[in-house]
C-alpha cells in the first residue's frame, strides 16, 4: 500500500510499499559449542526488519569462546552500525544481568555485549553453571 504523500519535513521516502511479510520458526544453535533445547523460536519479517523470539535452554561448552546463538533466519545488514535491538526477558543460571544481545553485522548470529560501554562480551565459560533457560526478543535489519 502507498496511501501517503511524501513528508513535509526534510525527510525523504525511498519506498512506501509493503513488499515483504513473513512469519515462521527458526532453530537456535550454539556455533561455539554446546547444545540447545528449543522450546519455541519464532520470527516475523516485515520489509527489511526481522523480529525474533526464542525460549530456549542452553548448555554451552566451557571453552572460553564468545557465547553466540546462531541459526537466525536472515543475515544481518552489512554495516558496522549495529542495526539491532535485543532484550532478555528471563534467564536463570546464566550471567546475563549486565549484558544485552546484539546481532553481529553481516552474520546470522547474536552475542552478548556488556551494557556499561566496556566492550566486554559474555564467553561460554561466563555461564554460572552448565546451562539454563533463556527467553529473548531481538529485532534487526537485514539486506533482503
Topology:
Layout: E1 21-25, E2 34-46, E3 49-60, E4 68-69, E5 84-91, E6 99-103, E7 110-114, E8 132-141
Antiparallel strand pairs: 1-2, 2-3, 3-8, 4-7, 5-8, 6-7
How far apart, in Å, are the first and last alpha carbons? 19 Å
Quaternary structure type: single chain
Our Rg estimate from Cα atoms comes to: 17 Å
Main sheet summary: 5 strands, antiparallel
Principal-axes shape call: globular
Characterization of the model:
The chain has a five-stranded antiparallel beta sheet with strand order 1-2-3-8-5, with no helix packed on it. Strands 4-7-6 form a three-stranded antiparallel beta sheet, with no helix packed on it. The two termini are 19 Å apart. Strand 1 (21-25) and strand 2 form a beta hairpin. The mean pLDDT is 83. It is globular. With 144 residues, it is an all-beta fold. The chain contains no helices and eight strands.
Characterize this entry briefly.
With about 140 residues, the protein is an all-beta fold. The chain has strands at about 20-25, 35-45, 50-60, 70, 85-90, 100-105, 110-115, 130-140.
Summarize this structure as a short list of keywords or feature phrases:
144 residues; mainly beta; 3-stranded antiparallel sheet; 8 strands; 0% helix; globular
Amino acid at each position: 500500500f502507498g496511501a501517503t504523500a511524501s513528508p513535509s519535513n526534510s525527510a525523504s521516502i525511498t519506498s512506501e510499499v509493503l513488499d515483504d511479510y513473513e512469519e515462521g520458526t527458526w532453530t537456535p544453535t550454539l556455533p561455539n559449542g554446546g547444545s540447545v533445547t528449543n522450546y519455541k523460536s519464532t520470527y516475523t519479517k516485515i520489509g527489511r526488519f526481522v523480529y525474533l523470539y526464542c525460549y530456549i535452554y542452553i548448555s554451552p561448552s566451557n571453552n572460553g569462546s564468545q557465547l553466540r546463538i546462531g541459526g537466525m533466519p536472515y543475515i544481518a545488514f552489512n554495516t558496522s552500525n549495529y542495526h539491532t535491538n535485543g532484550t532478555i526477558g528471563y534467564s536463570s543460571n546464566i550471567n546475563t544481568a549486565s549484558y544485552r544481545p546484539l546481532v553481529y553485522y553481516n552474520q546470522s548470529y547474536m552475542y552478548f555485549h556488556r551494557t556499561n560501554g566496556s566492550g566486554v562480551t559474555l564467553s561460554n565459560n561466563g555461564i554460572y553453571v552448565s546451562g539454563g533457560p533463556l527467553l529473548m526478543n531481538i529485532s534487526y535489519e537485514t539486506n533482503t
